[in-house]
Amino acid sequence: MAVNLSTPQPAQLLPVQGVALGVAEAGIRKLNRRDLTVVELAAGSRAAGVFTRNRFCAAPVQLCREHLAMAAPRALVINTGVANAGTGESGLANARATCVALAKEMGVRAEQVLPFSTGVILEPLPMARLLAGLPKAVADLRADGWFDAAHAIMTTDTLAKAVSKQVQIGGRTVTLTGVSKGAGMIRPNMATMLGFLACDAAVSQPLLDALVKEAADLSFNSITVDGDTSTNDSFVLIATAAAGNAEIVDAASADFKVLRDAVVEVSIALAQAIVRDGEGATKFMSIVVEGGRDRDECRQVAYAVGHSPLVKTAFFASDPNLGRILAAIGYAGIDDLDVSRLKVWLGNPDETVLVAEHGGRAASYVEEAGSRIMKHAELTVRIDLARGDAAATVWTCDFSYDYVKINADYRS
Question: Is residue 188 pLDDT above 60, yes or no?
Fold first, then answer.
C-alpha cells in the first residue's frame, strides 16, 4: 500500500495548452487494461530528455535519443507490459516501425515521434496488437487525457502518479502537468521509471536542455527503491510555447527562475510518488546527508544507506537496529572519513533524536526512543559528516515481505 499517497482526481490535473493525450487497450501483455498511450504536441513544441545509463538500454531509449537530435517532436508513444529491452536489432526495428506507423496516423514525420516502453525485459513487442491499438489511442486524443494516461503507463504501480501546477510568467498563466510511473527496479542513474512533464511556456532549447538535467538530478536521480537501474528509464520535459509568454532565453532572468522552481517542484513530487508507491513499501524515508566536502560524496553516503537491505528491513520492522546505518556510512567509500566527528539523527514529523556521535552511540540515546520514532510511516535519517558545507537528500522506502512476493510473481 502506498505511503501517504493518493491519485489526484481528474479535475485536479490541468490541461496544458498544445498537448493532447489518448489511451487504448492494445492487449500488449494483459487483456482489458489500458496499456498504450499517445501524446500529441502542437507545432512549435520543444522537448528535452534524460535517459538510463544502463549499458543494456532499451531500443526505444536508443531511438528517442536519435530522434531528439534530429527534429522537434510532435508525438510520444508509450506502451506498458513489454519493455522492448534486450531485444537486439529486431527490437530496434520494432521501435522504428511503431514510430513510422504513428507518424502516418498523425501526419508527421517518423523522426518527430518519441517512443517509450516499460514492462518485462527480454521479450519482443507484440507488434500486431500494438499497431492495431495506435488508431484507437489517436482517436481518443484530448486535452484532459492526463488522468487516463497516468493509469495507462503503470506496471506494478498500485496508484497512478500525476501532478499539476500553475505559475505566472511574463503576465501569462503557465501550466505544468506531469505523470510518472515506477515502483520497482528503481535507482535512476541519469529508475523501471518513466516521467513526462509538459508546460506551455516558451523557453529556448538550450535552457530546456539544461533544465531537464537539473530537474532530474534533484528529483528522479535522488530516489531509490531497490538499487536497480532499469534499462528503460526516461524523463522528458516538454515546452509547447502556447501560453504566449515572451520566450525565456536568459538563465539569470526572473522568468526562468519561476519556471525552473516550478519544474523542479513538480519533478520532485513525481519522483517522491514513485518511492511512496515502492513495491511493498510501508515507510517513506528521507536520507539527508550534510557537512560533506561536495554534493557527490553526500549522495554517495545517502545512497549507501538508502540501498542497504539491512537498513530497509530494519525500518520495515520498526527495529532500531541503527548500527546498520553506521555500517552503511562506513562502507560508502569515503576513505578519509573521520567517524569520531560524525553525527546521526533519527526523526519523524513529531520527534527527532540524536542516535550517534563521537564514533558510537549518543549518550542521550535510548532504544525506546528509536523504536517509538520508527513506528511512523514518514522518517528522516540525518547524517552530519562534519567535513564541509555540501548537502544532498535521497528518498527511499523500506523492504517488506511484499517486495519479494511482487517480484517473484511479476511475470505470472
Answer: no
3-state secondary structure of 219: coil
Nearest to 45 by CA among 194, 199, 156, 192: 199
Helix (H), strand (E), coil (C) string for 2-45: CCCCCCCCHHHCCCCCCEEEEEECCCCCCCCCCCEEEEEECCCC
Q: CA dist 276 to 93, 186, 270, 297, 348, Å?
A: 36, 12, 10, 25, 15
Residue 318 CB-half CA count within 13 A: 12
Q: Angle, to 10 degrees, between the axis of helix 323-330 and the axis of helix 309-316?
A: 160
pLDDT in tens, 210-222: 999 999 999 998 9
pLDDT value of residue 191:
38
Q: What is the pLDDT of residues 348-403, one digit of tens each?
A: 999 999 999 999 999 999 999 999 999 999 999 999 999 999 999 999 999 888 87
What amino acid positions are annotated as catalytic residues?
192
Longest dimension (CA), the chain: 70
Amino acid letter, residue 190 = M
Beta strand pairing call for 343-348 and 223-224: unpaired
For the chain, how many residues are written?
Answer: 412
342 closest CA partner among 332, 350, 76: 332
- Range scoring the smallest mean pLDDT among 49-58, 110-119, 243-252, 361-370: 49-58
Asked whether 200 and 16 are in contact (CB, 8 A), the reply is yes
Domains for the chain: give ranges and CATH numbers: 10-276 (3.60.70.12), 284-408 (3.10.20.340)
Q: How many CA atoms lie within 13 A of 307 on its CB side?
A: 18
**φ and ψ at 89, to 5 degrees?**
-65, -35
Helices (H) and strands (E) in the chain, counts: 11, 16
Q: What is the pLDDT of residues 136-151, one digit of tens each?
A: 999 999 999 999 999 9
Q: How far apart are the first and last CA of the chain?
A: 20
- On whether the CB atoms of residues 168 and 174 are closer than 8 A, the answer is yes
Q: How far is CA 203 from CA 46, 212, 217, 232, 238, in A?
A: 8, 12, 20, 27, 10
pLDDT tens string 11-50: 999 999 999 999 999 999 989 999 999 999 999 999 999 9
Task: Indicate the pTM of the whole model.
Answer: 0.93
